[in-house]
Structures are given as structure tokens and as C-alpha cells.
Amino acid sequence: MKKYLFIDRDGTLVQEPPVDHQVDALDKVVFEKNVIPALLKLKEHGFTFVMVSNQDGLGTDSFPINTFTPAHELILNTLQSQGISFEQVLICPHKPADNCDCRKPKLGLVMAYLKDTSWDRENSYFIGDRDTDVQMGLNMGITPIKYNPENMSWDAIADKLTTVARVATVERNTKETKISISVDLDHAGNSSFDTGVGFFDHMLDQIATHGGISIKAKVVGDLFVDEHHTIEDTGIALGQAILQALGDKRGIGRFGFVLPMDEVYAKVFSESLDDDNVTVALDISGRPHVKFDFDADFTRDHVGQMPTQMVSHFFESLAVAMGLTLHMYVSKGNAHHQVEALFKAFGRALRVALARHGNELPSSKGKL
Predict the structure, then answer these.
(1) How many Å is the maximal CA-CA distance in the chain?
(2) 70-89 tens-digit pLDDT
(3) 22, 41, 216, 319 - which has most CB atoms within 10 Å?
């Protein structure tokens, strides 16, 4: 479904002259700050543009067509030269006293769009600098955005309409565990953990803190049996939640990471892509592959209530659910430090891997 931006012209795309309020000369054409890069970004995210403008008295002696047209064509041609075009340019030429049906916020100009049910009203917007533009959006049944260069600039509008919240909640209920995990990949500091295994809670907190994300985990497991199902199923649910929150994965990065912690250090990296000097952290590729080089090197069987053999099983469960290519290594040392270094390193690698750098899909295959 098409997503539309219905956009006012004067005071929104170009500055409105403060005295006569008419853009009727070439030297009066001054574009609003950053409007072109913002529109290009919005176009890249699938929006179609329609210009909707009141031009009081257009065609009368006070505002003749021959003074309007050159400035108007300069606006359109400049935008067109940068890759920005409008599906339609809708102009009301009347004055308020004319009591027409097409002057904003009345709906005459856009009636054809309102009769068409094929476009996406929920994700379409009306953008303008006046209260009449806000009312126009409301009258059309779409969300209005009041443009203001100070607090709702074109940069802010582009960010608002192209930044998709990367959040997800996964419920996983079996005969062995009942799990609810929520993640927010773009906001940190709102995490909570209750798995019934204190040290495991502490490790999940390391992923959230060093990953720069929020995780809320509530787990009720069969701890009267042992910790296995609780830790394994939490890994599965967390991997599913992160994968779901990633959406189409556009803009994410792939980097390696090494973390020192006291007498130990941990590395988290993925396939070297046939180059020993290149490592790619957390290859979120949809092709799970896991390799660990630390199972035999833990210096204790448990840290708190958490069996150290469950460390590799947790990460394997998470990696398979999330679709990660994941290699992990930790040097010898205190077992508490070994496990914590791995979780911290994973979190740090995850932070870089999840960070967005534009809107490109980081794959030559066209799919992750």
C-alpha cells in the first residue's frame, strides 16, 4: 500500500515572505533548511509526495499567474533535479471570502484521494506550518505534523517517520518453563531479570548493559529438576525476541570484539570471510553456526547456581534462535571472570552488530 506525505508549500518546503506572504519572484525562493536531504530520506523509505497549497488570489491582479509560475517552476525543478517529485501538485487559488470547497482545511483538493481506499492511511501524514494544515490532516483522517524549524524541523520529521521502534516481546510456555522476554534494541537502562538463577540474572544484565539494549525477562522454570531448561529456553526466547525486533535488519553492522577482564580475556567473532585479518561480530545472517573454544577450560563446574557447561548451551540456543554465526573463546582464569567476560564480550559485540548505519541491507544477497 502506498504511504503518502501531503505537504504544504510556503512556510514548509520554502520560506514564506514575511511581508506579503507571496512567493512571486525568483529571489523569493528560499528552501527550508535540510528539506531536500529529508525528502530524499523519506522517499527512500517508501513515501509518495503530494503538494497541497493555498495561494490566495492566484490569477487576480494582486497575484498574477505570470509572477507565480516562474517561482513555482523553480521550486519544482530544483526538487526534481535532486530526485524529488510530486505525484500531484494541488493548489487552491481562492481567497477566504470566496468560500470555496478546495481551500485548506476543506477537502475539495484531496477528494479523489479520500475516495480511494487502496493507500495506507495509518502510515500517511499531512505536513504543514499552519494550524489549517494540522486541521487538514485531521479532516483527512491521517496524522498531521506541524512543521517548525525550531522544534519540528525537516531533520526531525525525517527521523520521526523513518525510525522504526525495534522492540519485541516473546512468550514461550512449555511443560518445563514459562517465559516472557521483552527487548528494546535502541534504549538502555530499563531492564529487569527474574529467572530464579541469581548468577544467570547477573549475566543477562551484562548482555543488556554492554549491548546498550533493554531486556525484561520473567522466567518460571523447573529448577527442582535443575537449571538446564531455564537457561536453555531463556536463550531460545531471547534469540527469538532480538530477531523479531530486528525486523528487516537494514543498516545493522558486523564487527569483532575482544574483551579483557582481570587475568582473562574473551573474544567473540564470526567467520573470517577467508581473511585472517577480518572478523565480523555476530553475523546476523539467518545461517546459525556456533563454535566454542572454552568448554574444557572452565576452572569450576558452577558459578553460583549456574553450571558452567550451560554457558555454551545458552549461547548455542540463542544463536540458533537468532540466526547467528558465532565463534567464542575465553582464556583460562577464575571461572566467575571467564563466564562474565564471555557475557560482557557478547554484549559489546551485540551493541556494534545491532547499531544502525543508514538504511542499507548489509548483504550482497539482498536478504539476511
Answers:
(1) 91
(2) 999 999 999 999 999 999 99
(3) 319
Cell of 144: 498531521
Domains of the chain: 3-162 (3.40.50.1000), 167-354 (3.30.230.40)
Burial class from Cβ neighbours inside 10 Å (0-12, 13-18, 19+) for residue 242 reads buried
Only one residue has cell 506572504, namely: 21
CB 244 within 8 A of CB 170: yes
End-to-end Cα, the chain, rounded Å: 23
Radius of gyration of the chain (CA): 28
Residue 301, judged by CB atoms within 10 A of its CB (0-12, 13-18, 19+), counts as exposed
- CB-CB contact of 17 with 23 (8 Å): yes
| Residue 326 three-state SS | strand
DSSP string, 303-322: ETTEETHHHHHHHHHHHHHH
Tell me the C-alpha distance between 350 and 240, whole Å: 15
Containing 208, the helix (H) or strand (E) segment is helix 198-211
Quick count: other Cβ atoms within 10 Å of Cβ 165?
11
- pTM beyond 0.90: no
pLDDT digits (tens, 9 = 90+) for 45-70: 899 999 999 999 898 888 899 999 99
Enumerate the active-site residues: 8, 10
Looking at the DSSP bridge assignments, the partners of residue 44 are none
Which residues is 266 bridged to in the sheet?
A: 259, 330
Give the span between the Cα atoms of 134 and 125, in whole angstroms.
10
Q: For the packed helices 198-211 and 335-354, what is the interaxial angle rounded to 10 degrees?
A: 40
Regions of the chain where pLDDT drops below 70: 251-285, 294-296, 358-368
* Concatenated DSSP letters of 6-62: EE--BTTTBPPPTTT----SGGG--BPTTHHHHHHHHHHTTEEEEEEEE-TTTTBTT
Angle between helices 198-211 and 228-246 (to 10 degrees): 20
53 vs 126: CA distance, rounded Å: 12
